[in-house]
Design a protein that fits this description.
Number of strands: 29
Helix content: 40-55%
Mean pLDDT: 90
Structural class: alpha/beta
Low-confidence stretches: 239-243
CATH class of the largest domain: Alpha Beta
Bound molecules: ligand C2E, magnesium ion
Radius of gyration: 50 Å
CATH architecture of the largest domain: Alpha-Beta Barrel
Strand content: 15-25%
CATH superfamily of the largest domain: EAL domain
Shape: rod-shaped
Amino acid sequence: MSTSILIVEDENIVARDLQYALEDLGYAVPAIAKTGSLAIQKASELQPDLILMDIRLLGEMDGIAAAQAILERLDVPIVYLTAHSDDNTLTRSKLTHPYGYLIKPFEERELRAVVEVALYKHEMEQRLKENAQWLSTVLNSIGDGVLTTDVEGCITMLNPVAENITGWSCQEALGRPSTDVFKLIHETSRKTVSNPIDEALSTGKTVIIPALTILVRKDRTEVPIEDSVAPITFYRGTVPIQDGKGHITGAVVIFRDVTQQRLSAKKLHRYAFYDSLTNLPNRAWFRERLTDALERSNRKSDYLFAVLLLDLDRFKTINDSLGHLAGDRLLIAVADRLLRSSRTVDTVSRLGGDEFAILLECLKTEQEAFTVAQRIHHELSAPFHLEGQEVFTNASIGIVLSSAGYEQIEELIRDADIAMYRAKAQGKGRYQIFDAHMRDQAVASSKLEQDLQHALERGQLEVYYQPIVSLTTQKTVSFEALVRWNHPQKGMLSAGEFIPMAEETGLCMLIDWWILKEACTQMNQWQQSSEWSTLCLNVNLSAKQVIQANSIGQISQILSDAEIDPKCLTLEITETTLIEKPELAAKTLKQFTNLGVGLSLDDFGTGYSSLSHLQRFPVKSLKIDRSFVSKMDLDAGSLEIVRAIILLGKTLGIITVAEGIETVAQMHLLQEMGCDYGQGYYFSKPLPKTEVSNWLQLA
Ligand code: C2E
Ligand code: MG
Ligand code: MG
């Protein structure tokens, strides 16, 4: 189909000439309009590809006014025909954006050139318009915010999503510096993030918006965003030049609201790095922070930090006696008090169970670490209220200072652990700073542990016997069997030096059965002599042993093998034995007494000293702990405790035995108070079996 051109010309001859000329050139001329109004009508009827419009027309409307009316409805290129053009007319005509002028009279060559250029220009404009429309549809429909700036960094466009995210309308934002509209801060430091638009404009490179960036919206609310800024480069010529010779005309920012992603990332982070019970950072997070601190202190010699490792005292007992729910509540309350005792820069974390760790950073002096430990002890010393009861606990704290110079966090944690155990061993509620000497001791004790594994099979264990004497007749009524370890390098070790370790490793059970067997066999020999046939034996039994399966079977077997009357045997247990598995313990202990064996509560006064234990378990005697007896003549409090225990024994019909009598004064006091039996260096130290007959003969 040929290109159609509408001619608007009031002079017939000119119009006809034009028509012929155009038809000669291959265009179609579907109509000629003589007046403005006719031109408007024909244009809308015929929708021509171009209009040749005479400016001067007969009637009320001239060509410019007609063109204006047509352009309101149609997108058609208009070329004016004019004979003479005054400035005023030209200015008016320009407002209609004409595609060209033909000055009458003109030649066919000119006509063709003007018409072709006008058609080409119009087609190009059409394509540009389509492109722009396509682009704006894309920008309006994508889910990302798009913002563009000019080369000065002033806003030139915001798409609807960008309007939404920033809170600025495109209208308001236009021409403003990008920093007004695209204000960025860092999520945690809250510092302004250096403007990525400026950077893209100055470097000509794509810039990624840094992680954890937050956009401050127009109403000052905040939204986390991510994505990138790219420079817009303009290339002269048709093909982009690859060598970067184009010049930068602005920047385009593509960004999106990542509130949801960041929330889920945070949730994941919490899950991986926080303890769900106390909400404190967990072991993994603590290790991360510790690694950072160690690296920093290795880079900066004056950077000082400390690690406090805490273990709650008596937690297991509280947990077992009040239940796990109460135990959980205690841990939460402790976490709270630990946070109160530390500064915001410190990392308070729960490593697991009742173990906590605190990383103290940016210390000015080492003294600060001790101050925190003291503050923790003070905070924890107040009672906790659980299940309607007042519960007391405290923590043993091991402290390690970065100034000791560590390469690995494992070494540091190991040393904090050693220091913490040392603090625990020194009595509860204490803190201890690690020193290298301790490590040597820890190594030595682990060596000792290995040695102990072989002590039994190598025949290094021996039973010593300490007399238990009647305070009324001064006669020996029984012997307590106490284990000794004849260590090849260290010489004779007393039970206190290795039994706690044996209890931890479980070796204790093997040792105890061996001691019981050995001591019973020995007792049988002594009883052969008619003089000593009523002599008794006390043997210590660990908690684990009591609740061990078939402990009753083992005991009766040993007794019958040794041919000993069960009435001669008293088993010494501590109150912890009754706490851990009370039902099982009660059942087993009852079976022991059914067998005829006596039960004695050892170290009475140091633990729970619970009346209900005395009622619930078939206890024959109480052993008053050495710590009270030894201080009794100097300390009124200890004396009163001893008096109370003796009184308690009398009331309940339980025999009382005082441990650790070292002086005659102590013995007299005990006699006066009516204590039944006594044991201690005042009478005799624990004796090897070879010296027992000697003792018995002298006594
Ligand atoms: P225990 O049953 O209270 O034993 C008394 C401890 O006090 C013994 O220490 C004894 O040597 C010490 N002792 C006695 N009189 C005096 C005194 O006048 N002054 C001083 N300073 N100490 C005195 P040992 O033998 O080191 O035993 C410590 C603990 O180890 C015992 O405390 C007992 O609980 C445990 N034990 C000892 N032998 C065995 C055993 O064969 N099996 C088990 N499971 N535990 C044992
Ligand atoms: Mg004992
Ligand atoms: Mg004792």
